[in-house]
Design a protein that fits this description.
This protein has 71 residues and is mostly beta strands. 0% of the residues lie in helices and 39% in strands. It is built from no helices and 4 strands. A 4-stranded antiparallel sheet has the order 1-2-3-4, with no helix packed on it. The radius of gyration is 14 Å and the shape is elongated. It starts with a strand and ends with a strand.
Length: 71
C-alpha cells in the first residue's frame, strides 16, 4: 500500500532570510544550508512520512539535499 500524499509545498531557492529579511545563520554555519525548497507530508496505515529538500545541507551546490523522516 502506497502512502497517500497529504501536503506538498515548494519554496524558491535562495530566500532563506525570512519574512522580515532579518534571519541570519549562527556563526560557523554556511549561509544557504538551511534553505528549504520542498516539503511533502504523506501517510499510510502505519506511519506519517515527512520529506524535505534543501538547497544544500553541506558545502556542495547543487545537488539539493533530501531529508526524510518517518513517524
Amino acid at each position: 500500500l502506497a502512502a497517500a500524499t497529504l501536503l506538498t509545498q515548494t519554496d524558491p531557492d535562495g530566500d532563506d532570510w525570512g519574512s522580515t529579511s532579518t534571519y541570519t545563520y549562527p556563526e560557523g554555519v554556511p549561509p544557504g544550508v538551511l534553505d528549504a525548497t520542498y516539503l511533502e507530508v504523506a501517510r499510510d496505515d502505519s506511519a506519517t512520512y515527512f520529506r524535505a529538500e534543501f538547497t544544500a545541507l553541506g558545502a556542495r551546490r547543487p545537488p539539493p539535499t533530501l531529508v526524510a523522516i518517518v513517524l
